[in-house]
């Protein structure tokens, strides 16, 4: 079975094709090819539907006579869905209702679903959600201290995101440590342009830093993370409208607001050459992250491991050092030599010293692999 995976980001569309043995779909499958269209909206690629057109051309020349049998879409916000679903018109209508809750991600995902339906009307499509892994959050964690009627009316609750990545790297980390996933307790930080931390207890999500939308929690590339909600009321009274607040918090905040740039490489270089704003941005982001890791170490019942992933977690040795040094009161100790060597690796590595109270693992994420497997699991039960 040949499966196409589409993973739309705010300005990119990653894709992969996976081959599964039709006689044994549970077997792990193999990646046939992968690619990405970047800078969507900034170039002649005006939106994700146009990006998909160029991918279709590429695929038809690469795959020749081989036919796609399923398509798996990464959808960030799944609302009430607690696991992957086969896409039909009802599902699409529901996902469209969720668009305002994850404007950077759900809007392009829905565009891709429509475009894929036009291109491959006969092929089964599956939506795999970042929210699903967090279905196990206990009520005292998912509930906000807001009036219940209001929350019920609008579906306001903590959903949590990055679940596809967190589950994938968590399971890899558990395997590496020889701990069954159902017994794994840990703190998993997905640090990319979007960033979140999750507390895992017994292989289940028990707390996570993103909430009703992917805005809450850590300082991110262009997102603010936690702010006093009173600031929003204040700014509304100053005359800012909802659209302006949305742009402010989703696109003009975070590292970009603090350092003038949202690329960790640029910020790290600027900080090393004495740029005070860049230094402050790194310190602010690390401080917020450490606050969450410390809290979640308690929440998960004492972490077997701290797991780092995402573009920054996998590649930025200086940022890892800054964060892990702040965790010294927990007995965490980095191995500075190994840490420096862990940049852009395919395999997972331990970057803590042997005497560290908690092992720290860098585990490369592979959302496409997880989506391909989830897609096959859904399609094969039809
Ligand atoms: P992601 O959203 O997971 O693709 O991660 C994007 C973030 O990873 C950006 O802040 C990049 O600057 C950062 N990143 C990617 N490669 C590196 C690298 N080699 N060193 C430091 N940061 C990196």
TrEMBL record:
UniProt keyword annotation of Kinase present: yes
One Pfam family linked to the record: Acetate_kinase
Main location: cytoplasm
Organism: Paeniglutamicibacter gangotriensis
Residue positions binding ATP: 14, 190-194, 263-265, 311-315
Residues binding Mg(2+): 7, 367
Protein known as: Acetate kinase
Family according to the record: Belongs to the acetokinase family.
């Amino acid at each position: 079975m040949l499966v196409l995976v589409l993973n739309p980001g705010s300005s990119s569309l990653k894709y992969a094709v996976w081959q599964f043995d039709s006689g044994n779909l549970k077997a792990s499958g193999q990646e046939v090819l992968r690619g990405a269209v970047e800078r969507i909206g900034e170039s002649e690629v005006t939106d994700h539907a146009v990006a998909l057109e160029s991918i279709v051309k590429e695929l038809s020349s690469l795959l020749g006579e081989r036919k796609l049998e399923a398509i798996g879409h990464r959808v960030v916000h799944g609302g009430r869905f607690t696991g992957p679903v086969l896409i039909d018109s009802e599902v699409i209508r529901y996902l469209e209702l969720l668009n305002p809750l994850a404007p950077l991600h759900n809007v392009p995902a829905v565009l891709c679903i429509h475009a894929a339906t036009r291109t491959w009307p006969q092929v089964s499509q599956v939506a795999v959600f970042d929210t699903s892994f967090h279905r196990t959050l206990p009520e005292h964690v998912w509930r906000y201290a807001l009036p219940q009627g209001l929350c019920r009316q609008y579906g306001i609750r903590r959903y949590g995101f990055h679940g596809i990545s967190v589950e994938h790297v968590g399971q890899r980390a558990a395997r590496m440590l020889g701990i069954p996933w159902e017994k794994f307790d840990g703190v998993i930080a997905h640090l990319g342009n979007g960033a979140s931390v999750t507390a895992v207890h017994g292989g289940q999500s028990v707390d996570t830093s993103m909430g009703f939308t992917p805005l809450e929690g850590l300082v991110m590339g262009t997102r603010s993370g936690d702010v006093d909600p009173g600031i929003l009321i204040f700014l509304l009274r100053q005359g800012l409208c909802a659209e302006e607040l949305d742009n402010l918090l989703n696109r003009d905040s975070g590292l970009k607001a603090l350092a003038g740039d949202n690329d960790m490489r640029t910020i790290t270089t600027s900080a090393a050459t004495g740029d005070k704003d860049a230094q402050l941005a790194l310190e602010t982001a690390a401080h917020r992250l450490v606050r969450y890791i410390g809290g979640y170490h308690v929440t998960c019942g004492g972490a077997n491991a701290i797991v780092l992933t995402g573009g920054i977690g996998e590649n930025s040795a200086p940022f890892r050092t800054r964060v892990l040094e702040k965790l010294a009161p927990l007995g965490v100790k980095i191995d500075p030599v190994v840490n420096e060597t862990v940049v852009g690796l395919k395999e997972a590595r331990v970057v803590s010293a042997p005497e560290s109270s908690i092992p720290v693992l860098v585990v490369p994420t592979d959302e496409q692999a997880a989506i391909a497997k989830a897609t096959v699991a859904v399609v094969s039960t039809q």
